[in-house]
Amino acid sequence: MRPKTRSGVEFPKARCSDLLTEEIGGELLIFDVLKNRAHCLNRSAAAIWQHCDGSRSIVALAEHLFPGLERAEGEQLVRLGVERLRRRRLLEDPATDPAVDLSKRQMIKKLAIMAAAAGVAAPMVSSIVAPTPAYSNSCGPRGTVCAAPVNCCSGSCIEFVCQ
Amino acid sequence: MNSLERLTWSDSLAFSSYGVRIAIRVNQSNLRGAIGALLPPGCTMLPPGPVERVYSLIVNGSHQQGDDEGFHLLYEDSKHLVKHRELTPILKFLAARLRRTVAELAPRRVFVHAGVVAHRGRAIVIPGPTMSGKSTLVSELLRHGAIYYSDEYAVLDADGMVYPFPKPVSLRAPVSFDSIDFEAEYFGASSGNAPLPIGLVVVTHYQVGARWRPRTLSHGQGALTLMAHAIAARRDPRRVMASLLRAVAGAIMLKGVRGEAFDLSKQMLEIMERENAEEQVGVELNLASRRR
To answer: How much is the pTM?
Structure first.
């Protein structure tokens, strides 16, 4: 029987629309066309994202992706990955309740250490905002000290500060 | 028709740089030499025809009314960019704007805001925002024997190879925004002309008293970091991503704060020497095993 597809915290589903993806050495580079943000998912985060099809539960994902870990640890690791992906809006239903409390740094650190001991990296997502062309000029961005408008990318220098 | 089109232009020129066609027009005829000196590296002159951008320079604001009288004015297409009573700063601004336009619109190249030098047949790329110390580090690398490629843009092709963009090295005086341009020869270096693979990417900025203790970035993180400085990332993300991933595929990527550029430049070149030596050993072992 085909599993019932559900969204939300327990059955996360990867967002697929308006995203460009490229793989490099197990990592995944994702560009969000709507937000002009790029994300780098490490191997664990990439595996979680690629398997979030809305039909697998977090428990099922943990068993499938991290068979070498204790069930509870694997589940926590998937929850951590899901939450990091959710915060970057890489999952459908980004407004659902958090899968794990990311403010509990000690708990996350402990989890990462346990995972590392089993040869698994904790899921990590690094992100950047794609620059606008204005960023590129060798001229003063907003807030830099200027002597004249020509020092500023905007062409506007008021009271020695680029606007 | 905007108001600029109604003005009389005494001189104009058109050029193409990295596939981007740009025209410049001026209301005085004696500025051709000064304008010609502003053109970006790698440009060829074009006959009049369709272009992607038009820059209009009005000297002395003689065509303008009221407040603009006596100012020099610069426009990009119909958009007013900047005005100033002195011409030199306006020309400097225009030069930077031309380079930025080429970086943004180049159809077959990916421009990453970065300093670039070459050593032992590979490029060292130092991405970073304005005033992060790229040019200072580039100048130190040149003093230590590196070959100059650029202090502003790493120009990549679809295979991730780096091309030169040899504008003069712009160094700022302390506590000043004004910069002075130096040719690579001033630092005892030559300029490169061949495309090269990237050997080392260094993501850094200056911090007083800092020691260089970098961490290694993965290839994905390295590509992401370069993406943060890729000018066309929003315009053409697919092409930019593909090019960057190929560019970092064989590179070492390091990230960390730095102290003085003098110390770091030596360490960077040593890394390249070591990599080169290891590669040579690998090649020799490979040849030896083939002979057997």
So the answer is: 0.86
